[in-house]
Amino acid sequence: MVVMKMKFPFEKRVKLAQGLWLLSWCATVAGATTFTLGCLLKTELRRRAEVMDNSDVHIVPNTLMIVGLASLGINYFASKICQDALDAGRFPRWKNFLKPYFAVSSFFTVLMLLAVIMSYAMKGSLESSLKAGLRNGIRFYKDTDTPGRCFQKQNIDRLQMEFQCCGNNDFRDWFEVQWISNRYLDFSSKEVKDRIKSNVDGRYLVDGVPFSCCNPSSPRPCIQNRLTNNSAHYNYDYQTEELNIYLRGCREALLNYYMGLMNTIGAGVLSIFLLQGSVLVSLRFLQTAMEAVAGNENTEIETEGYLLEKGVKETAMEYLNPVLTFLLLKNQVQEGTSDEAAPAAP
Amino acid sequence: MAVLKVKFTKTRRDKLAQILWILNWISVVTGVILFSLGLFLKVELKKREELMAEKDIQYVPNMLIAVGLIACVINFLGGKICYDCVDTTNFLRWKLIMLPYIVCTFFFTLCVLVGALMCYSMHWELEEALNLGLTQAMRFYKDTDMPGRCFLKHTVDMLQIQFQCCGNSGYKDWFQIQWISNRYLDMSKKEVVDRLRSNVEGKFLMDGVPFSCCNINSPRPCIQQQITNNSAHFNYEHQTEDQNLWMKGCREALLEYYTHLLQSIGLTVLITWLFELSVLTGVRYLQTSLENMLRQGDPNSESDGWLLENSLMETARTNLSIIKSLGKGNQIDTADNGDPNIDVPSTSKAHYGPDNVPPKQKTETN
């Protein structure tokens, strides 16, 4: 039972070939665009790699780059095939090439769709990666003398100023971490000793934040220290004060930024997927229509084109059978040898 | 004796015309580039106009924009002329316009040169404007409740963060102005009242700076208050500490940025000027060789092309006398003491039409 049969008179075949040629060049440009978008996303993710715990989310830009390169090749061949399609003498040389070509092209087109789905699905993984990365960044903020961590302070400060955020969930994360190194604490001072003694782990915790949390849009000079103490500052109520420091957490800010980027890219890649799909479908119709012409002396007869000769299930089995027999054949050989070996042994 | 005479065969003339056609179109593109550079400079200056005092520095980008537009028009016309110069019949159309066109283009290239030089000379005016502007901005830093000045705090903070600078000449400028508004000072506290009293003008001055002066690269948390007091902070000496705050002054930082920009733009304009001059020279050679060819009468003949027909001094003298005689157009001839009734015979030879026969004197017969 043929899937999607369509009649193709000569003029329609010619028009299909011409339209397909143009479409395949558009799809080549689209493929290059996909590759560029993948590179862009990877660069953006790498820029903030210090605040990400794992690089699981990199699978999205990697897939986009692979698919972009593959589609360049696919569309190049598509344009070559449809150029030869109308010439009955040159078309038969593509005969053996087309079956694997369609298999590979369908695989990469489906991969494109998977990349789009992944860009939406990776949100949870990205969030947990950012959570762990930011927690470490804040914890090692004070370790500017430890090799390997000496740039954490700079990175966190720059991040907070650029994304207009403070802390992991919000600014209170800084209250739970000692962000002032012991090198700059005067241990002979009574106040410092008291504060360290009052903490279980012997850490110097303050209700203050680094200067990078300060909001430049605030009408008053920035209040960084004793944030929760209303009486320490004139005309100040920390519960209603919104403009003094950034209230947003950096995890939320970064997540919004990256999800926005991936959503935009996802939308673009989805439209490129539709374009690529239409190229492949048109090529399939052209191929089947031209194959019906082969052998006839009159090349201008009306022919039928279809998507699949048999039903979907049968075609799938047809493609999978070689793969399965390859695997099954291996098993059969092994069984055969073990049968031979068993009677030989005793 | 002609200046820089070159012989031109017919093929050489045609090739010159074609090359000039292409070069003129390239010049149109460079005109567009000049226009966009002027626009870019205008936008960059406008972005920071709050930090610049009311000095007239907008004339530089305006000049570049005007020059860019005029360059497009002139070179477009030049392209058309050179395209027609290949064909002798078409050249006759442009014959009369070519010399005024060349003169105009010559003065225009002078304008381009002036534009390039202005880019380099803007440096000093800009420095003064920035000095005054930054002083004002820092003075009004605290006035976030006054309309018209309420965004200066944000502007100055963002400037110091972006350009990694502090204050006008350095961070000590903040010690001399009150940057904390009275709204946030507790006047009931003894310390505040003492500090206000100790100052002649009643200003609350302190040795502290805003948070935007903090250096990101510092290994220790930022020290903003009591900067000159070594004992107020552990393991701190303010004379040797150079990583705590930004050490550069904002005037220097901004000036560096704009000077770099202006130098690049000035260089581009100079290169454009040289290109325009070479195109103009080519057009002049083309014009003189075509005119000489017409004088000789034979379109396929060899002709001379030159920059100036006579030497520079003679050309200057003749042009000056032409300009002088233009000015004398309304003056009366002093040969007859200004009396219009006396008939002064003409000294030039009269020309009586194509066959040069004087008209018959009409005699009145009574």
Structure, described:
The complex is a heterodimer of chains A (346) and B (366). Chain A has 346 residues and is mainly α. Chain A has a domain at 3-137 and 259-311. Helices cover 60% and strands 2% of the residues of chain A. The two termini of chain A are 55 Å apart. Chain B has 366 residues and is mainly α. Chain B folds into two domains: 3-137 and 252-311, no CATH class; 171-247, no CATH class. Helices cover 55% and strands 2% of the residues of chain B. Chain B has a two-stranded antiparallel ribbon. The mean pLDDT of chain B is 87. The chains are: A mainly alpha (346), B mainly alpha (366). Chain A binds chain B through residues 144-145, 150, 153-154, 157-158, 161, 179-181, 183-186, 189, 210-212, 214, 216-222, 224, 233-235, and chain B through 144-145, 150, 153-154, 157-158, 161, 179-181, 183-186, 210-212, 214, 216-217, 219-222, 224, 233-235.
- What is the C-alpha radius of gyration of chain A, as a whole number of Å? 32 Å
For the secondary structure, the number of strands of chain A is 2
Strand content of chain B: under 5%
Tell me the major beta sheet of chain B: 2 strands, antiparallel
Low-confidence sequence ranges of chain A: none
Number of helices of chain B: 7
Q: How far apart, in Å, are the first and last alpha carbons of chain A?
A: 55 Å
Q: Going across the major beta sheet of chain A, what is the strand order?
A: 1-2
Strand content of chain A: under 5%
Q: How many strands in all of chain B?
A: 2
Principal-axis shape of chain B equals: elongated
The secondary-structure class of chain B comes to mainly alpha
User: What structural class do helix, strand and pairing data of chain A support?
Assistant: mainly alpha
Helix content of chain B: 40-55%
Main location (chain B): membrane
Family (chain B): Belongs to the PRPH2/ROM1 family.
Pfam families (chain B): Tetraspanin
Keywords (chain B): Membrane, Transmembrane, Transmembrane helix
